[in-house]
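Whiteboard transcription, Tuesday session. T.W. wrote the C-alpha cells on the left side:
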C-alpha cells in the first residue's frame, strides 16, 4: 500500500507560526530591536523577518519607534521596533468560595484594571454572565476596548476539566458539570481556559512568587477546601481528565466526617479552614477552655488571632490541621518529587503556627530520598496568587504568546 504524501502545507504553516513566535518573543523581551538584529538572533532570512514584522505591525502587536544608532560602517540607521503591550488584553477571573476577583492584564501581563465582588450565588449560568458583565465593565473603566480581549483565564475552587472547560464539581459553590468555558466564551467572544485554584496559584508562585521559577513545583492549596497544583518543567500537570491535584478528596482512614463532595472521610474535612473551626468546637464540647467560647460564631481567622494571643486550645487546633497538611505534602513529595513545595491558599497566612507542625509531619512521613533537597515555603503572593495565575495562564494560552508551544 502506498504511503501517504507528506503534509507539506501543514509543515509550512507550523514553521510559519514558530517563526512568528520567535520574532514576537524577541521583540517582546529584547526590544527596542531592529529587523536586522532579529534576523541575526533568530538566523531567519531578512525577507522572512520583514514579512513577519510587517504582519505584526498590521495587527498592532509591534510598532516602529524611530531610527536607532547608525552602525560604525555607516549607512542608514535601522528602524527600531517595540512590543505594543496594550494591543491586546487578557482577563483573569478567580471565582472563590466567598469572593470573585477580576483582573485585566495587557499583553505583557501588567495589570491595568481590577474588580472584586461577592461570589454570585445565583444559578451558575447567571453567575457566569454576571462575571462576564463585570469583565466588560472593568475593561471599559480602564478606557480600553473589549474587542482587544485575546483570552480569559477562569479559576474555580473545585474539580475542573481543562480539556473541556467544564467545572465538574465545586462543592463550596454548589456547582456540578457547569460549562464555564462555553458560557464565558459566548459572552466575551474570546477563548476561555479553565483551571482550578491550586493550578493557577502554582503558576503564579512559580513565575512571580515563592517558586523562583523552580519549574518542578508542588503547591498545596489550603483554604476553604484543599487541593494541589503540580508543575512539571514549568507546565501544569492536568491528568487525562483534567482533575490532577485533587488531593483533598483522598480518604483518610478513621475519618468519618462528611465532605461537601458527597463522600465521607476526605482529607479536606480535617485539613482546611473549616476543619480548624470544627476542631475548636470539638475541643470546647469536650470541656476545653478557650477565649473563643464566648463568641457566638468564629472562623479560622478568629482562631488564628486567639492562638497568636496565647490561646492554647486554638493553637492546638491549628497544629493538628498543620500536621494533616504535612501528611498531604508528604504524599505530593513522594509521588511527584518536586524541587519545592509552596503552601498557598488562605491558611498560608497563619504562618509558623501552621507551618512548623506541617514541616515536622513532612519530615516524619516523606521518603528520605524524595525529601532530599526539598524546601517548603509559604506563598509570597497571598490572596493575589489565584487571580495572577488566571492572568498568566490566559497570557500563556493566548494567540500572542508562544502560539505553537501551548497548542499541543
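and on the right, the sequence the group agreed on:
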Amino acid at each position: 500500500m502506498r504511503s501517504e504524501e507528506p503534509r507539506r502545507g501543514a509543515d509550512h504553516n507550523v514553521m510559519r507560526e514558530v517563526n512568528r513566535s520567535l520574532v514576537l518573543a524577541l521583540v517582546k523581551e529584547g526590544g527596542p530591536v531592529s529587523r536586522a538584529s532579529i534576523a541575526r538572533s533568530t538566523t531567519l532570512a531578512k525577507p522572512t523577518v520583514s514579512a513577519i514584522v510587517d504582519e505584526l505591525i498590521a495587527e498592532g502587536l509591534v510598532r516602529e519607534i524611530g531610527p536607532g544608532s547608525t552602525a560604525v560602517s555607516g549607512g542608514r540607521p535601522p528602524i527600531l521596533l517595540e512590543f505594543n503591550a496594550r494591543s491586546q488584553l487578557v482577563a483573569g477571573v478567580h471565582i472563590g468560595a466567598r469572593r470573585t476577583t477580576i483582573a485585566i492584564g495587557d499583553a505583557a501581563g501588567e495589570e491595568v484594571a481590577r474588580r472584586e465582588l461577592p461570589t454570585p450565588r445565583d444559578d451558575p449560568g447567571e453567575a457566569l454572565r454576571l462575571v462576564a458583565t463585570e469583565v466588560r465593565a472593568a475593561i471599559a473603566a480602564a478606557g480600553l476596548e473589549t474587542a482587544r480581549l485575546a483570552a480569559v483565564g477562569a479559576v474555580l475552587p473545585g474539580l475542573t476539566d481543562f480539556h473541556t472547560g467544564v467545572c465538574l464539581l465545586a462543592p463550596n459553590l454548589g456547582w456540578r458539570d457547569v460549562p464555564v468555558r462555553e458560557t464565558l466564551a459566548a459572552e466575551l467572544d474570546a477563548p476561555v481556559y479553565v483551571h482550578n485554584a491550586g493550578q493557577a496559584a502554582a503558576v503564579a508562585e512559580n513565575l512571580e512568587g515563592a517558586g523562583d521559577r523552580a519549574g518542578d513545583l508542588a503547591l498545596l492549596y489550603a483554604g476553604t477546601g484543599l487541593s494541589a497544583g503540580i508543575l512539571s518543567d514549568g507546565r501544569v500537570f492536568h491528568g487525562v481528565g483534567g482533575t490532577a491535584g485533587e488531593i483533598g478528596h483522598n480518604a483518610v482512614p478513621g475519618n468519618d466526617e462528611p465532605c461537601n463532595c458527597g463522600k465521607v472521610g476526605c482529607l479536606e474535612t480535617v485539613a482546611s479552614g473549616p476543619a480548624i473551626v470544627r476542631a475548636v468546637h470539638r475541643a470546647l464540647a469536650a470541656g476545653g477552655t478557650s477565649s473563643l467560647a464566648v463568641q457566638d460564631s468564629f472562623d479560622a481567622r478568629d482562631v488564628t488571632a486567639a492562638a497568636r494571643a496565647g490561646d492554647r486550645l486554638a493553637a492546638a487546633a491549628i497544629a493538628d490541621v498543620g500536621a494533616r497538611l504535612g501528611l498531604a505534602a508528604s504524599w505530593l513529595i513522594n509521588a511527584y518529587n518536586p524541587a519545592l513545595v509552596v503552601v498557598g491558599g488562605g491558611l498560608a497566612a497563619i504562618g509558623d503556627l501552621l507551618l512548623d507542625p506541617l514541616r515536622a509531619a513532612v519530615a516524619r512521613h516523606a521518603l528520605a530520598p524524595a525529601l532530599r533537597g526539598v524546601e517548603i515555603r509559604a506563598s509570597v503572593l497571598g490572596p493575589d496568587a489565584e487571580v495572577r495565575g488566571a492572568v498568566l495562564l490566559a497570557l500563556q494560552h493566548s494567540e500572542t504568546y508562544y502560539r505553537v508551544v501551548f497548542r499541543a
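Someone added at the bottom: Confidence is low (pLDDT under 50) at residues 1-10, 400-408.
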